[in-house]
């Protein structure tokens, strides 16, 4: 099965949700309809024939057919109660359409670039021999993937106080790549980046070089190394890892679907 297939088959539900956010399921049939608006085909999700609306009260209008189908599946998979916090794609779509913070492609890109300058995989720990080995094994390939795919010259740094880890030319290259995406895709990318405190890890996921699970493993490398040495509460660690994997996988799909608006048989 392809990486995309594994993304699609993965459930996008989190591990827990507050009872205060739950509502009883009030619909039976979930469907997707399409409409032509000013020469553009838009997709809408319906619940018993009624249009799904965002938290801002707007009818959700989606340019990507596969995204509309995936959001419809989130609603169809709900059982007796609605777990709104678990419907990641729905939440991202609501945020992208309502845009409550009045963001632009430029402002989202600038925010993502802030994470690049403090990217998790660019700052290596030279004091722990074990962690250094892990970083060489798991982080270096991520840096290499970005350099090969983007044409950058990114290198790891062992000085936590270094302020010029990413050169201006490399930052411009990453900025250009980010700006090649539309607003909705950038909304998903920002969610991914903020989840794992890295730009390079989500880059590897959205370009299908890493699975979300593998990227999260790399994002939590330091915690895992410390747990091997000092021990940890295993169940709590597992919950955090599952939560991050869920977020990153959903964000990667959101980016992909908003960059590829038409369904294909190979999906």
TrEMBL record:
Asked whether the UniProt record includes Electron transport among its keywords, one would answer no
Q: Where does it localize?
A: Mitochondrion
Print the keywords alphabetically. Chaperone, Mitochondrion, Transit peptide
Q: Which domain of life is it from?
A: Eukaryota
GO BP: mitochondrial proton-transporting ATP synthase complex assembly
The record's section on SUPFAM superfamilies has: ATP12-like (SSF160909)
Example GO CC term: the record gives:
mitochondrion
Show which residues constitute the signal peptide: none
Q: Which InterPro entries match?
A: ATP12_ATP_synth-F1-assembly, ATP12_ATP_synth-F1-assembly_N, ATP12_ortho_dom_sf
Gene3D superfamilies, from UniProt? ATP12 ATPase (1.10.3580.10), ATP12-like (3.30.2180.10)
- Pfam families cross-referenced by the UniProt entry: ATP12
Q: Which family does the entry's similarity section mention? A: Belongs to the ATP12 family.
Put simply, this protein is called ATP12 chaperone protein
């Amino acid at each position: 099965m392809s990486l995309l297939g594994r993304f699609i088959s993965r459930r996008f539900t989190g591990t827990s949700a507050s009872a205060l956010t739950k509502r009883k399921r009030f619909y039976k049939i979930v469907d997707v309809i399409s409409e032509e608006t000013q020469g553009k085909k838009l997709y809408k999700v319906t619940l018993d024939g009624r249009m799904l609306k965002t938290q801002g009260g707007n009818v959700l209008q989606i340019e990507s057919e596969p995204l509309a189908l995936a959001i419809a599946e989130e609603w169809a998979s709900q059982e007796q109660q609605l777990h709104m916090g678990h419907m990641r794609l729905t939440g991202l779509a609501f945020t992208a359409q309502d845009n409550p913070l009045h963001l632009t492609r430029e402002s989202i890109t600038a925010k993502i670039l802030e994470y690049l300058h403090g990217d998790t995989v660019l700052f290596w720990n030279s004091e722990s021999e074990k962690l250094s080995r892990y970083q060489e094994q798991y982080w270096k390939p991520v840096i290499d993937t970005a350099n090969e795919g983007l044409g950058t010259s990114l290198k790891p740094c062992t000085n936590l106080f270094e302020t010029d880890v990413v050169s201006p030319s490399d930052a411009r290259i990453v900025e250009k790549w980010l700006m090649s995406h539309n607003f909705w895709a950038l909304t998903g990318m920002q969610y991914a980046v903020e989840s794992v405190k890295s730009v390079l890890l989500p880059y590897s996921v959205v370009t299908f070089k890493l699975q979300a699970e593998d990227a999260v493993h790399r994002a939590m490398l330091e915690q895992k190394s410390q747990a091997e040495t000092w021990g940890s509460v295993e169940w709590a660690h597992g919950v955090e890892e599952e939560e991050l994997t869920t977020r990153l996988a959903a964000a990667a799909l959101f980016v992909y679907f908003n960059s590829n608006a038409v369904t294909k048989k190979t999906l």
